[in-house]
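Severity: low
Component: inverse-folding endpoint
Summary: output formatting inconsistent between runs
Steps to reproduce: submit the following structure tokens with default settings.
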């Protein structure tokens, strides 16, 4: 199968490319790091024609809740205009579309969050991702919206909390902890996300538009994460700060729908996975 991945050099994109290549698919990557911008409709059109793809996985986005308020134009044009462009090219070339949204579209919902819960984003980032969902749901080709919940894993983004702590520790700084460590997340291992995507790609779709929340089955507080971190690095120190207004205190998914349709049943291995990642990043032997 010919598959085009936007955002192919990003955190999830790198893991996904490897898995799909090993599964025998022909992968075409489209990423800003290679000078390929989803806002450039002319260039995007050329890549759709070149790849003759039948499935598109749309990962390209400006990500991060806090930075969205600082760089509003970049977020709005990339996440909204860029998604419009990708969707229209999928219509033109008759491709299936798997488009990544975000759990941020739910705002301060009461978890565990279900797919049909109200969408009331409280951040500009969440607003742009919700607008992207509206665009996808108006397309005339089969689509799936994926809402991942706090994805973590090897080679993660630097703005993810434990990577931020690792970088602060390496720089000799104190680790910054918000809301006294009380925030809670349903952390989702990137490998489990990839497995769900592979299942989805290999399925015959009997829908026009569908959506799935993909989240972990362990609810982890920042304080619990900090405890794991400080057991590994005993000389680490931290500073506690007030929670930013755009942060959501609790955020985790109801995955009943994904369990039923995608056989999505992630194992409870958060502590083991995080410990291995921290040790690897800091070159600490077990």
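Observed output (run 2 of 3):
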């Amino acid at each position: 199968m010919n598959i085009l991945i936007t955002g192919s050099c990003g955190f999830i994109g790198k893991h996904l490319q490897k898995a799909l290549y090993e599964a025998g698919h022909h992968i075409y990557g489209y990423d800003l790091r290679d000078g390929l911008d989803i806002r450039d409709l002319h260039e995007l059109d050329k890549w759709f024609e070149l790849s003759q793809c039948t499935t598109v996985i749309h990962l390209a986005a400006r990500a991060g809740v806090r930075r969205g308020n600082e760089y509003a134009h970049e977020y709005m044009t990339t996440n909204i205009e860029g998604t419009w462009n990708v969707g229209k090219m999928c219509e033109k070339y008759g491709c299936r579309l798997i488009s990544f949204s975000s759990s941020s579209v739910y705002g301060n919902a009461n978890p565990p969050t279900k797919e049909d819960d109200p969408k009331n984003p409280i951040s500009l980032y969440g607003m742009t991702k919700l607008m992207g969902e509206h665009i996808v749901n108006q397309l005339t080709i089969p689509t799936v919206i994926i809402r991942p919940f706090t994805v973590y894993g090897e080679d993660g983004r630097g703005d993810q909390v434990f990577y931020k702590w690792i970088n602060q520790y390496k720089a000799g700084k104190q680790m910054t902890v918000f809301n006294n460590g009380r925030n809670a997340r349903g952390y989702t291992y990137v490998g489990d996300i990839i497995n769900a995507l592979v299942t989805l790609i290999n399925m015959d779709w009997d829908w026009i538009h569908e959506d799935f929340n993909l989240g972990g089955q362990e609810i982890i507080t920042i304080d619990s994460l900090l405890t794991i971190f400080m057991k590994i690095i005993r000389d680490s120190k931290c500073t506690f700060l007030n929670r930013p207004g755009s942060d959501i205190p609790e955020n985790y998914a109801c995955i009943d729908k994904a369990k039923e349709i995608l056989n999505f049943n992630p194992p409870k291995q958060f502590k083991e996975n995080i410990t291995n990642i921290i040790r690897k990043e800091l070159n600490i032997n077990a």
